[in-house]
Design a protein that fits this description.
Helix content: 55-70%
Strand content: under 5%
Oligomer: single chain
Distance between the termini: 76 Å
Number of helices: 7
Structural class: mainly alpha
Largest sheet: 2 strands, antiparallel
Mean pLDDT: 82
Low-confidence stretches: 7-27, 30-44
Number of strands: 4
Order of helices and strands: HHHHHEEEEHH
Radius of gyration: 20 Å
């Protein structure tokens, strides 16, 4: 028979080992990419219902992206938003609760990439990412040609509008998802402030 003290010690050791193996994160916010990012995503894979914890983390990540991208010259903002939205999509759980949100945000990032590629200015110095408390992976952003910037911004704004609409519609299919998807849609829509014409 184990003594109470020995049992408590055993439980503590098991708990410590479990926490070390799982790599608990704050809802996919703080990651340096690679294996740590995959570990973060795996924590909620297969989730059948949305949670305030995960939804709030997605919203916070979008707010962090908006704040970071807004600190750069306008020519870098589309590429910044593209890359950070792709980061965010990868952090959204793959389970049924957030599958559509993950897909919509990821598709928007891809569409922004097409706009970026069509209007990239390779003659201008690239912008290295500054500190982002939630999305820590270092990035390098490519500029848009200034003469094409307003047109590119308008196209990017339409991409964000479309993603916002898709998120709202996706939430209509489930009472459980509705409130969560509305919040995510609002957070995605808020990034349009980065895309205003001069």
């Amino acid at each position: 028979m184990f003594s109470t003290r020995r049992m408590q010690g055993l439980y503590a050791a098991v708990l410590t080992a479990a926490l070390a193996l799982t790599g608990v994160s704050d809802g996919y916010g703080q990651s340096t990419g690679g294996s740590s990012q995959r570990s973060g995503n795996s924590q909620m894979e297969g989730a059948a219902a949305p949670s305030d914890f995960v939804t709030n983390a997605i919203i916070a990540n979008l707010a962090a992206a908006r704040s970071e991208c807004g600190s750069y010259d306008r020519v870098y903002r589309i590429d910044c938003l593209r890359q950070r939205m792709l980061d965010i999509a990868r952090r959204i759980p793959q389970g049924a609760a957030y599958a559509q949100a993950r897909q919509i945000v990821g598709r928007a990032a891809s569409q922004l990439g097409s706009i970026q590629s069509a209007n990239a200015d390779t003659r201008v110095k690239k912008q290295r990412s500054r500190r982002n408390a939630r999305l820590r992976e270092a990035k390098v952003y490519t500029a848009i040609k200034r003469e094409k910037l307003n047109q590119a911004m308008q196209q990017a704004s339409r991409v964000i509008d479309e993603a916002t609409t898709q998120l709202l519609r996706a939430g209509e299919n489930s009472e459980k998802r509705s409130a969560h998807y509305r919040k995510i849609a609002a957070a995605v829509g808020s990034t349009k402030v980065l895309l205003r014409s001069a």
